[in-house]
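User: Fold this, then the next.

Assistant: Folding the first:
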Amino acid sequence: MLAEASGPDDLWPGEDLPGAIPARLAEFAHGRSAARQAMIGLGFEPAAIPMRQDRAPIWPSAVTGSISHCEGACMAALARRGDYRGLGLDLEPRRALPPELWSTILRPEELYQINDLPLPQQGLQALRFFVAKEAAYKAQYAVTQQIFDFQTLRILFQNQSFVAEFCATVPPFEKHFQFVGRCVESQLYCAAFCWLPIA
């Protein structure tokens, strides 16, 4: 859900972001505000959402979720912990991804798909791959606690929906394990949401 306007003064005790510049702190506060609104929407009392050393949110025991913020917007997605193992959300301004980043983010088969598109569409499609991989990474991180590069996940688009596939074993997920997500766009933003249901 989208956050209502908030600012650093709306941070709750324990929600610290040491050394952050004011703009970054405001984004952080907006994201926490959105997450608390989502808690209320699920029927829970709002609570503080501190940050672990790896920067992942520490959720109340009854929920799991994901927060994303960028220039001008933030979103949060939450669910009851018994319904999902992990949720992932990414939100970015709808701008073409610079070509110098493509080989880092895209696998060869994904690059091939980009190069088949008309030139004006290539950078935006690269952005869609990026937000989908970021959302998928966040969803799996709730389970694996493993850091890996963009080449570990392959994204297979089916219109606005996508499948995220592991290209290597990342315990407990075997190579070729798949899970699903969805991209949405406006004129200003591109977002992706991914989920891992309870097995």
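Now the next one, as you asked:
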Amino acid sequence: MAPEVKVYALSTCIHCKNAKEYLDQCGVKYDCVHVDQLTGDERKAMIEEVRTLNPSVSFPTLVINGKTLVGFDKAKVDEALGK
């Protein structure tokens, strides 16, 4: 069964880029939202969504099978993916 993965990222953040590249290397399909590219009400709604998962609103925020990971740590990503 494929993992359910969502990434909240900033388009210019190196840690966000590294997280997405690692997921690509693992062959994991994911949905990614670049929060900094949203505007208006859509951006406000997305920030509120991230805040419920990660009160500090830092990036990247990854949600893997319902588990929230803040920042990029290969070992934590592997654990959440069940590797």
